[in-house]
Model the fold of this input.
Amino acid sequence: MDKFPNIDLNLLKLFASLYQTGSVTVTAETLKLSQSACSHALTRLRERLGDELFVRIENRMLPTAYAQRLAEHVMPALTMLNQGFELSQAFSPTQTHNFKIATTDYSSWCMQAFTAHLSQGFKAINIEFLQLEQRLPEAALKSGELDLACGFSHQPESSESLMRLTWLEDHYVNARCAQRGTPGPLNLQQFLEHKHILVTPWNESRGIVDISLAKIRKKRQIAIKTASVLAAPYFVQNTDYLLTLPHRYAQQMQQQLRLSLSPLPFKLPNYQLNLYWHKTRYQDPKLIWFIEQFQQFIEQTDTLPHQ
Done:
């Protein structure tokens, strides 16, 4: 413990950058140092901690076992310090800011109108959409690795750690190739006689359609599974496959892909698109600004129906 009270914070920033990049050159550029100054700083850190920390192998600086153990504590601590400094500063949308938002392909598509709005009035604001690998990435939202997540739900939900803004509600429809078969609604028996396309954004074994059918002791046949809502309608073309699709997107693709749309022959809950953020960041000026802008936009435009 006696090593850390007097250690230079800049040396820990150097450690974090080297750990993440494995490059003295990139670290020097990131910290705005010369390579010589960066090397000298690394020498001081090695002497201070009594360990080599990084060894060069195949032109890359790899962490020692001690450095790996140290990183488990240093990296989260630096993230928390950065968040603390950000909270102490007023947010200005005229300065460059990056927002990292986890989405599915469909939820990012639904946010297009809002990002277009930001591009007109806030040119210094940048948005980075990242693939949502799990429905609610709580750890990444807490650490600051993500600012927000845009996901969906089919029923009211509550969370001890996440806050939520529901901004769109919509229903599902049945989509099929208009050039094959008789147009019009299908009854449940006809629906189950067809093979289906299953959309699983997180590689689930089944979706809301399968869950709802199971409640009435029915099961459908799956021909194709895909993680992409946006790509799914293309698999319907020139086939007899059925696809359960968000009505909002189905309408957009109906003419382009010659889809026949009809109601589903059983009860299926509506879906809600939600914006999530972590409760520990509820006073973050950056997030407050974004959420206020987003909420004002959906309240003032008809392009994003909301609850």
Summary: Residues 9-87 form a domain with the Arc Repressor Mutant, subunit A fold (CATH 1.10.10.10). The first helix runs from residue 9 to 21. The radius of gyration is 25 Å. Residues 115 and 127 are 8 Å apart (CA to CA).
